[in-house]
Design a protein that fits this description.
This protein is of the alpha/beta class. Helix content is 24%, strand content 18%. The protein has 15 helices and 25 strands. The strands form five sheets. Strands 1-4-5-6-7-9-11-12-13-14-15-16-18-20-22-25 form a 16-stranded parallel beta sheet, covered by helices on one side. Strands 17-19-21 form a three-stranded parallel beta sheet. A two-stranded antiparallel ribbon has the order 2-3. α11 links the parallel β14 and β15. The longest helix is centred in the first third of the chain and has 13 residues. The protein is globular and about 105 Å long.
Length: 590
């Protein structure tokens, strides 16, 4: 009786488990004569010999042998089942701007089982083929253009490229000028599990882009839209509809919002919101109960008609969990501050009200009476004086760590020194353009002042220039940019690592003393050459002075101590005689 040739029992290739088969790409992994895997196998059966007539001793064979004279036909065994490996999400980051950037990964375990397998992927089945695990590691480091190009090489590379896109959770793309929306949509469709999206647009944007993002990214958690010499034509209704539909969205940042008009944002998941270039908004409603961080930058045009008082009042009522508030507008007034303090936001930790020239010391008193646990206070561009700084120091002596008072013309060096002395936990202080010469930017007035200085030497300097002395144990960053009225500076800050002295044009090199051993960077753009040289001499020292730890010994009569020669002194231990190196500091003048 001639027996049926059963299907040999073979091991399923790992490539068939991971990469779906699209047509036959290579032969079987098992020997056609005996059913043993081909790798390292030399078959002992003749080419024309049927393995049924000579049963193989292979334990994997499913044939049941009958008496030697009779071979009973057996039904073919069931096909081996394919076990699909679990798909592990990857935190990949693509950046189309710089091709040298490579995407990272938070999980390297998806292909850990491939190291011992013989699955090869490449343009051929022999020389040049790579294991799937190696190909995955190479492809996940490619930028999007190279990843798209590699998908055209062969089917194996195309499938690996498809899996890379599918596992991506973060994507950063630059959309060039005149780019079609279909191009962006085709890229987003490759990433169904995308969580974080950042778009840098060099072409105009409208609601079509939002619809494409909403359709292609159902799991989107964070979206950032940056404008680069382009126009944002999205309206307030379109943005509100997008936010309401994306129930997983927690972080939204958008630039170029001048065409929003009135809008209403309703979301229970949104926790961080940043909108810039806002202009003339008739209605701004924020119905976001879980919103914690809000940043609103308005246009610097004087004819802006946005009612900030009404907007802040509604923001405080509908967003009770706010912790960080940043508002930059030239229409900030004391009334806006009163509306904010009336909201009684108990969790507020950071408050930034920038460019409000009508914010005065009375506004500081209102802030201090309502929010006594602030960690950051930014009143840059306001009209507060040294008295307002005194109130800040009295209310926030233990909590305040960041104080920004740039562009405040009524503040003097005395107020800055008082703040440094009364705020022990201060780590950052920005006092740019506070101690400035008001006539420095006027060429005609400057020429008249030069003539007056020549006629009456040193008489004008004592009226304008000020000195600043700061001694602080925790201060790490100090900014004095644009302080053209400063001619003497003495700093004793052991933790200071960043100092900004840009445009301190009248700072006298002979009246500069920096005792900051941890200083790493000094900005000196627009300073005198003599000042730059003094800075380099004081901060760019490779090594600190080392104390003399040589051993001393008294004479036999105990009358005098003398140094013991190194030959007779014991070997130094620990780190006493080692030179203590200092961080090299960089002076930036460009």
């Amino acid at each position: 009786m001639q027996g049926r040739h059963p299907h040999p029992h073979t091991t399923t290739p790992i490539s068939e488990v991971i990469l779906p088969k699209r047509g036959k790409k290579r032969g079987s992994y098992s020997c056609g004569r005996c059913g043993v895997p081909k790798k390292g196998h030399v078959c002992n059966f003749p080419k024309n010999l049927n393995p049924i007539d000579n049963p193989s001793p292979n334990p994997d064979s499913s044939l049941l042998a009958s008496p030697p004279s009779v071979v009973r036909p057996q039904p073919p065994p069931p096909m081996p089942q394919r076990h699909v490996l679990p798909q592990l999400r990857r935190a990949l980051s693509f950046d189309d701007v710089d091709v040298n950037d490579s995407p990272g990964s938070d999980d390297d375990g998806e292909f850990s089982d491939l190291d011992n397998e013989s699955d090869l992927v490449g343009s051929g089945s022999g020389i040049g083929a790579l294991p799937s695990s190696c190909l995955w590691e190479v492809f996940k480091r490619l930028p999007p253009p190279a990843l798209l190009s590699s998908a055209r090489v062969c089917k194996g590379w195309s499938e690996t490229s498809r899996r890379i896109w599918k596992s991506a959770v973060e994507l950063r793309l630059r959309v060039p000028v005149n780019a079609q929306i279909g191009l962006v949509g085709s890229v987003l469709k490759k990433c169904p599990g995308l969580v974080k999206l950042s778009l840098r647009l060099e072409s105009d944007i409208d609601a079509t882009m939002l619809a494409c993002i909403a359709f292609s990214c159902p799991k989107l958690d964070s979206m950032e839209i940056l404008m680069c010499n382009s126009v944002n034509r999205i309206t307030g209704d379109e943005l509100g509809r997008f936010v309401a539909e994306k129930r997983c969205l927690t972080n939204l940042k958008m630039e170029g919002c001048s065409n929003l008009g009135g809008f209403t944002l309703c979301s229970t998941s949104l926790s961080t919101l940043s909108l810039s270039d806002l202009y003339c908004h008739a209605k701004m409603v924020f119905n976001c109960p879980n919103l914690k961080d809000v940043s609103l930058d308005f246009s610097h045009q004087e004819n802006d008609t946005t009612d900030l008082t009404l907007m802040v009042d509604g923001l405080g009522r509908s967003c009770p969990r706010l912790q960080n508030i940043h508002i930059a507008s030239m229409r900030l007034t004391h009334a806006v501050v009163l509306a904010l303090t009336a909201a009684n936001l108990r969790g507020l930790r950071m408050l930034s009200l920038v460019l409000g020239s009508e914010i005065t010391d009375a506004s500081v008193a209102a802030i201090a009476s309502s929010y006594s646990s602030l960690e950051l206070l930014d009143l840059s561009g306001s009209s507060i004086s040294d008295s307002g700084i005194g109130m800040i120091c009295n209310i926030f002596p233990e909590t305040l760590s960041k104080l920004l008072l740039a562009l405040c013309p009524n503040i003097t060096s005395s107020g800055i020194q008082f703040a440094a002395a009364q705020l022990p936990n201060l780590e950052l202080m920005d006092c740019g353009m506070t101690i400035s010469d008001p006539d420095l930017d006027n060429p005609t007035t400057q020429e008249n002042n030069d003539l007056q200085l020549q006629r009456t030497p040193n008489s004008k300097q004592h009226l304008i220039y000020q000195k600043l002395i700061i001694k602080h144990t925790c201060l790490k960053k100090l900014s004095l940019w644009g302080c053209s009225g400063l001619d003497a500076l003495y700093l004793n800050c052991p933790e200071l690592n960043d100092l900004n002295l840009n445009s301190c044009t009248n700072l006298n090199p002979e009246r500069l003393l920096l005792q900051c051993p941890n200083l790493e960077c000094v900005h000196a753009l627009g300073c005198q050459d003599a000042l730059v040289g003094t800075l380099k001499n004081q901060v760019c020292t490779d090594f600190m002075a080392v104390e003399d730890h040589s051993h001393c010994k008294r004479l036999p009569d105990g009358s005098k101590r003398i140094k013991v020669p190194d030959l007779f002194s014991p070997q130094p231990t620990d780190k006493k005689n080692k030179r203590i190196s200092k961080r090299c500091c960089t002076v930036l003048v460009n």
